[in-house]
Structures are given as structure tokens and as C-alpha cells.
């Protein structure tokens, strides 16, 4: 159900893009708040009234349950602080002193109207058996006070059976809808839209001359995107593992973590453009913009909608591009790729010396060791900067089994007895990770007769390998390994782009061409923290799934019950789960 709160309130039941109807409404809305507020206070503008309401204490104007009964009304299940009568204390009473001010009146008025809207919306939702209510319109303005009041009202009157949801840029739903409608006339089926968090504004965005201006910036992706067909239930899929809006401890940690690590991004951005006279200035502007964003999110976590680790990483990436740093780690990736390729032959010979079962175990150990080399993880960055941290050292840091999540034995048993027909691997980092970790795994699967798709980012992010880089790497690896060469020649090994431009993985937005290929896959493998921990750790699939990652963040590892370099080796077979 959509509740649009403008001057009045319209309530629409929405069943699909083309099936919807107006089922009710009320004349008591934003216009009522503004009109009565102008009469009750000296505030003239809508925002002045909202600012005033946020400073007030409605208890000085409203009569509460405890004012009537002296406490909770337990028989009827009413809390003592529940409003019994809006503006009830304003009524003249003998020997009663009036100690309310304009801010108190504004807050009482906001609560009266918001509670009324919430109750009416709830009744319509329950009458039509609808469980989700989306609120839009220019009344809310992303104000936490208004949203909290309406959501409390919905929860109270529905006894928790109806969920209230709020939209960013809710005052411009009509404009955004008109824009999207217009794109249908311009071959909209050939591209998709993604929000650019670096350019989009929040409810607190202002221009230098003091006028508040809302801004929604969209990037056009030059191909259609769609859900991964392997998801068990696409309609309930949520890529993010943790909602930082609701998890205060995690929110405080990650905001501080990204704020403290921003200097690394700045240094790599400057180093990536050594001949530029403006690189340092632009990098400083990037830093200032991101730090300002973090400070805002500490005060107003929901300013940009759902706050997640994925969203923060995407914001960093988009801010870098805004200040013309499209790929700060390009030189680092090339250096690491060249070095890793010189070690590939020795690694393959080492694996070939093992028997089948031990080889499968060591291949997975190699994937985990390779995944340690991540320039987005603060603790491992310190190790890599020494210049002495190599593949063997990373291998030695993998803890003894049993691991934090340990399904290695089940994986080895399966892969030794019944190889897969077609496998999709969503890969992570350049250098040692992809060359000494993923390529030996791919080679082994090719040797067993499997067909492989290596899925890589379409655009740069940190030191993650991109599709264009992967194409070059595979040609170079083919010159070293005949099995990889044969796989490329015969088409049993191919690389495809994911339409992702960040370190995480949103399986609701994949390249359509890749999605079509995935329909015949019987194993999906997700590698790395961004793709298998920050996102998709709980994702369920219609085929077998293997999630592999090294936890390279001490705080996160401890929160999951492990320690630094804890292992996620999560193999899930659809046959075993039945």
C-alpha cells in the first residue's frame, strides 16, 4: 500500500505496475499541519514548523494516560506515556499554570496529525490484508520525528502485523516517476539505472547560499540488469548481511573504520596519477567529501536510506570517480599480476604432486591464502606494505581446523566423487588471489570435465580484478598452463562481467547475458569477504553453493565468534538440505 502525504493524504492499493487503485484518504495532512501551525506559532514556512517541533515537548500540551489514571492502564494495555488527548492540557483548568511554548504546540500538532495518518493507514491496510505500507509525499521530508511517530502508530494499531516503510526523496515521487516513464520512450529495456551516492543529496543537503536543495543522481548502466536466476527466492533476497541502521555497535565500528582508512585511498589516488598537477588537490577534496558524509551518517544514519558496508564501499568508489580517480589501484594490480604469474607454474607443479583428495584440500587452502591479499582490509594492508608478505606466509597464517565455518570435508567428498557440470565463480582480488588461488581451482575443475564461468567486476573497485583485466590474465595464464589454454580454445572456460562496480556483490543486479548463462549452472562459488560475508552469507540458491573467504578484519572476526584470519568455508548442497 502506498500512502502519499501531501496537502491531504491519498491511499493507494498497488498490486503491480499496471494494477492499482485509490482506496481512501483523509483531508488531514501536510496542509493541515502547515495551516494550523501558522495559526499556533510565529513560524511561517513548513521547514520552520518542523524545526520548531523537533525542539518541543508535547507532554506540556498533550494529556497522557498517566495524567488521567496516574500510571499505566494495564487492563486495556495502555502505557502511561500514551497520548490520551492531543492538546488536552491546553484546556483551561482551575489552578493550572500554562508552561507550554510554541515549540511544544508544534510538536503536539505534528504528533496529532502523524498519529491520525498512521491509524487511518493501518486500518486500510488491515481491511485489505496488506502487510507493508510505503509512505511518500512532501510531508515527511526524511524527518526522523515524523517517521518515528507514523511507524509507532502503525505498529501500535496493527499489533506489529503491518510494516511501515519510508522512501528517500519521498517528496519527489511524482517527478521521479515521470522521469522513469519518459525513459520508456528511449529504449529503456537496453539499460538500467543505479543511484550514485556521491552525487545524491540527503534531507540535510544545502547549497552555499543557504537554500535547501534535494538532489538524486542516477548513473545509467549501458545494459539491462536482472536477478540472479539461481536465487531460491528473489523476492525476499537482501544482499547485505548487516543493517547498520538497526545495529548501533556495527554502525559505529564501520563508520569509524572507513573514516580512519580513508588516508590509504587518498595516497593511492595521488600515486595513480604521478604526472598530474591537480591530483593532490582532488584527492584532498575526495577525502573532505567522504569525511563529511561519514559525520552526517553518524548523526543521521538513514540519511541515504539503508546504511550497509556495501553502500559505504560503493560511496567511496563513486566519490573517487567524481574527483577523477577511476582506478587508483591500477598500477598496484598490474605489478601484483605480473609477480603472481611468475609463481603460477611452480604452484601448479606443487599441486600435481599430491593425490586427488589432498590436492582438493590444498587447492582450497590456496584460494583462502590468496584471498588474504586485499587492499581494502586495514590489517592485511599493514602486512602487505612491508613487502615481505607473500603467498607462503599467507598460507601459514590460515588457522588450524576446525575453522569458523568448516565444510571442507563435505566439499572434498563431493568434488572427488561427482564433479559438477557447470560452475560459476564470482572472483575477488587481482594478483595472488586470482592467479595462485582461483586459477589452480579453475584448472582442476576443467581437468574434471566441468565448464567454467569466471565472473568479474565490470568496473574497478580497490584491487578487485575487472573483467577486462581477467581477459588479459587468462591469455597470459594459458601460455603457462595447457589445460587453461585448451579450456579457452574450446569455450569450456570463459570470463563474463557482472555489472558490479564495487567490492561487494548484489545478485539482484546482474548483467542479463550472465544471468542467462547462470540458468544451467549447478554450482555457484562466491569468493571473498565482500561477496561471501558482507553480502550473501545467508543467501540461498536452487543449486549447490560454496562460499569461501578469509576474515581479514579483527572486529568482524570476533563478532562472528572467531579471530583474525578466521575461515569461512561454507559448502551447501541442495540435495543434502532436502
Quick tags:
578 residues, seven-stranded mixed sheet, Rossmann fold, Nucleotidyltransferase, domain 5, five-stranded mixed sheet, alpha/beta
Question: TL;DR of this structure?
Answer:
This protein is α/β, with parallel strands linked by helices.
Explain what this protein looks like in three dimensions:
The chain has 578 residues and is α/β, with parallel strands linked by helices. It folds into three domains: 2-61 and 100-167, ATPase, nucleotide binding domain (Nucleotidyltransferase, domain 5), CATH 3.30.420; 173-222, no CATH class; 329-572, Uncharacterised protein PF01937, DUF89, domain 3 (Rossmann fold, 3-Layer(aba) Sandwich). Helices cover 44% and strands 14% of the residues. The protein has helices at residues 30-40, 46-55, 65-69, 102-127, 144-158, 173-183, 248-271, 279-299, 309-322, 330-352, 356-370, 378-384, 391-396, 408-417, 432-447, 467-478, 482-490, 512-518, 529-532, 554-559, 574-577, and strands spanning 2-5, 9-14, 20-26, 63-64, 83-85, 132-136, 163-166, 192-195, 218-221, 225-226, 405-406, 422-426, 451-456, 493-497, 510-511, 523-527, 544-551, 566-572. The strands form five sheets. A seven-stranded mixed β-sheet has the order 11-18-17-16-12-13-14. Helix 1 packs antiparallel against helix 4, helix 4 (102-127) packs across helix 5 and helix 11 (356-370) packs across helix 14. The protein is elongated and about 95 Å long. Its cofactor is Ni(2+); Mn(2+). This is 4'-phosphopantetheine phosphatase. Keywords: ATP-binding, Coenzyme A biosynthesis, Hydrolase, Kinase, Manganese, Metal-binding, Nickel, Nitration, Nucleotide-binding, Transferase. GO terms for molecular function: ATP binding; hydrolase activity; metal ion binding; pantothenate kinase activity. InterPro entries: ARMT-1-like_metal-bd_sf (IPR036075), ARMT1-like_metal-bd (IPR002791), At2g17340_3_helix_bundle (IPR035073), ATPase_NBD (IPR043129), Type_II_PanK (IPR004567).
Amino acid at each position: 500500500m502506498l500512502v502519499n502525504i501531501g496537502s491531504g493524504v491519498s491511499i493507494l492499493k498497488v498490486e503491480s505496475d499496471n494494477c492499482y487503485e485509490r482506496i481512501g484518504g483523509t483531508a488531514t495532512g501536510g496542509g493541515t499541519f502547515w495551516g494550523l501551525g501558522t495559526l499556533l506559532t510565529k513560524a511561517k514556512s513548513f521547514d520552520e514548523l518542523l524545526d520548531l517541533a523537533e525542539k518541543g515537548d508535547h507532554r506540556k500540551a498533550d494529556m497522557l494516560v498517566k495524567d488521567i489514571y496516574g500510571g499505566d492502564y494495564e487492563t486495556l494495555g495502555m502505557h502511561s506515556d500514551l497520548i490520551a488527548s492531543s492538546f488536552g492540557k491546553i484546556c483551561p483548568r482551575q489552578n493550572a499554570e500554562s508552561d507550554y511554548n510554541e515549540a511544544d504546540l508544534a510538536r503536539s500538532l505534528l504528533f496529532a496529525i502523524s498519529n491520525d495518518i498512521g491509524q487511518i493507514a493501518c486500518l486500510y491496510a488491515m481491511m485489505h490484508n496488506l502487510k507493508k505500507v510505503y509512505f511518500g509525499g512532501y510531508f515527511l521530508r526524511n524527518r526522523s520525528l515524523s517517521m518515528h511517530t507514523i511507524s509507532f502508530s502503525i505498529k501500535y494499531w496493527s499489533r506489529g502485523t503491518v510494516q511501515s516503510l519510508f522512501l528517500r526523496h519521498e517528496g519527489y515521487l511524482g517527478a521521479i516517476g515521470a522521469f522513469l516513464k519518459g525513459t520508456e520512450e528511449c529504449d529503456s529495456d537496453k539499460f538500467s539505472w543505479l543511484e550514485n551516492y556521491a552525487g545524491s543529496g540527503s534531507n540535510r543537503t544545502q547549497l552555499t547560499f543557504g537554500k535547501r536543495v534535494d538532489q538524486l543522481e542516477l548513473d545509467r548502466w549501458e545494459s539491462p540488469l536482472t536477478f540472479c536466476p539461481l536465487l531460491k527466492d528473489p523476492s525476499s533476497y537482501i544482499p547485505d548481511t548487516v543493517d547498520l541502521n538497526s545495529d548501533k555497535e556495527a554502525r559505529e565500528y564501520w563508520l569509524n573504520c572507513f573514516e580512519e582508512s580513508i588516508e590509504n585511498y587518498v595516497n593511492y589516488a595521488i600515486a595513480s596519477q604521478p604526472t598530474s598537477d591537480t591530483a593532490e588537490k582532488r584527492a584532498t577534496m575526495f577525502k573532505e567529501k567522504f569525511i563529511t558524509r561519514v559525520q552526517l551518517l553518524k548523526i543521521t544514519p538513514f540519511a541515504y536510506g539503508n546504511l550497509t558496508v556495501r553502500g559505504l564501499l560503493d560511496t567511496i568508489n563513486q566519490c573517487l570517480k567524481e574527483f577523477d580517480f577511476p582506478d587508483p589501484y591500477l598500477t598496484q594490480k598490474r605489478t601484483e599480476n605480473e609477480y603472481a604469474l611468475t609463481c603460477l607454474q611452480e604452484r601448479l607443479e606443487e599441486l600435481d604432486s599430491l593425490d586427488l583428495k589432498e590436492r582438493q584440500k590444498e587447492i582450497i587452502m590456496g584460494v583462502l591464502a590468496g584471498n588474504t591479499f586485499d587492499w581494502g582490509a586495514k590489517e592485511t594492508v599493514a602486512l602487505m606494505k612491508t613487502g615481505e608478505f607473500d603467498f607462503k606466509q599467507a598460507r601459514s597464517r590460515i588457522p588450524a581446523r576446525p575453522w569458523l565455518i568448516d565444510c571442507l570435508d563435505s566439499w572434498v567428498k563431493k568434488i572427488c566423487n561427482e564433479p559438477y557440470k557447470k560452475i560459476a565463480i564470482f572472483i575477488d582480488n587481482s594478483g595472488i588471489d586470482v592467479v595462485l588461488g582461483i586459477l589452480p581451482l579453475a584448472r582442476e575443475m576443467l581437468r574434471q570435465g566441468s565448464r567454467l564461468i569466471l565472473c568479474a567486476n565490470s568496473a574497478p573497485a580497490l584491487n578487485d580484478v575487472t573483467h577486462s583485466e581477467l581477459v588479459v590474465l587468462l591469455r597470459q595464464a594459458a601460455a603457462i598452463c595447457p589445460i587453461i589454454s585448451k579450456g579457452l580454445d574450446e569455450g569450456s572456460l570463459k570470463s563474463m562481467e557482472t555489472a558490479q562496480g564495487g567490492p561487494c556483490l548484489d545478485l539482484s543486479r546482474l548483467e542479463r547475458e550472465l544471468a542467462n548463462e547462470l540458468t544451467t549452472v549447478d554450482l555457484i562459488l562466491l569468493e571473498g569477504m565482500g561477496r561471501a560475508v558482507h553480502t550473501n552469507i545467508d543467501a540461498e540458491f536452487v543449486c549447490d553453493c560454496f562460499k569461501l573467504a578469509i576474515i581479514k578484519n579483527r572486529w568482524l572476526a570476533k563478532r562472528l565468534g572467531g579471530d583474525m584470519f578466521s575461515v569461512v568455508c561454507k559448502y551447501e548442497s541442495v540435495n543434502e538440505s532436502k
